[in-house]
Amino acid sequence: MSTVASVIDESSPRYAGWRVVVACFLVALFCWGFALYGHGVYLTELHRLHGWPTAAISGGVTGFYLLTATLVVFISDVIARLGPKRVMLAGACCFGGAVVLLAFIDALWQLYFVYLLMAFGAATMHVGAISTVVGLWFNRQRGLALSLALNGASSGGILITPLLVLAIASYGFTNAILGAAILMALVLLPAIVFWIDRPAAVVPPPGAAPAAAAGTRAAALRSTAFWSVAAPFAMALTAQVGFLVHQIAIAEPTTGRAHAGFSVAALTVAAILGRFVLGAFANRLDMRRFTAWSLLSQAIALLAIMATSNEIALMAACFVFGLSAGNLITLPSLVIQREFEAASFGMLVGLSWAVSQITYSFGPGAMGVIRDVTGGYTASLALCVALDLMAAILIVMWRPRP
Description:
This protein is mainly alpha-helical. The chain has helices spanning 17-36, 38-50, 54-72, 75-82, 84-102, 108-123, 127-137, 142-171, 173-195, 217-221, 224-255, 257-281, 287-307, 311-325, 327-339, 345-360, 362-374, 378-397. It has 18 helices and no strands.
């Protein structure tokens, strides 16, 4: 799969690739709303309804992330063979079915089965899949297109998580989950059917240099250049995902149950703003230095959350954390686009995200265990701060040669 040739006017509103971006926005909206951000809601509600230990529920989340990471490694190959429409449509059906089953489980093993099914769906709606599909349509405008598509991830925290919390409080967990799953089916499935596709083959302009051959996964795993991207982002995302999964539980003692969902909304509003800034200035920024400053801001925000018991201060800290939360999802793709050959873009993005997800899948479980052992979240948040600071140093100091 190659990106669309540069003779196409990617900036034109009539360009078909922008419809793909809208569909990918909706894919990210529901995937992150019901998966990454939704896990925090499920953790709180399932613990309240069934009395299951926080560590046991978090372990299911860890299993979800591990399986998704394994599948994401090969998602670019699957999309190349079957096409983006078939892959995303099948995945959305698995994902939606898993959300429905959440409403009926009454044993811990059933939760693990639901997360298994959800992982198959999430792998086809993940950053790796979205980056691959958007990369088919965009070259020069890829930074903007990816930022807009992945803003759906942040919007999931704004639109889905607070509404899901309010719906659960008003109608109960079962009714709220079923209603949300119906809404997802009505909006997402038609968008995939009518807007997701792959572009027609485009003949390169006369005199264009031949495209470089794609590398292999084995060669990437032996490359220090690849690990200079994968390792720092894996550390940073471990801290970020661990915090996001436990965010509602962390905020609830300070904000109360009804307002805890709005801390997620504050974070994700900031994430959308941060993504727009990155999309507008991506071509002018040193991505590695920008990443380092982003991680430093997250560490400061986490320290503030540890120190405060004031609701307004906690919301403000979540907002600061969120300014870079969305960009940490987009930045690996942009660094890879800038530093590696175009033919390997989809493969490297998927592989990098697999490394990150295998690593950060342990974040929620580790935070849950530390919380249960220590009786609070202070030690867990301190671990996240340390990971952010180490990642900020590595992403700048471990810069590969041109």
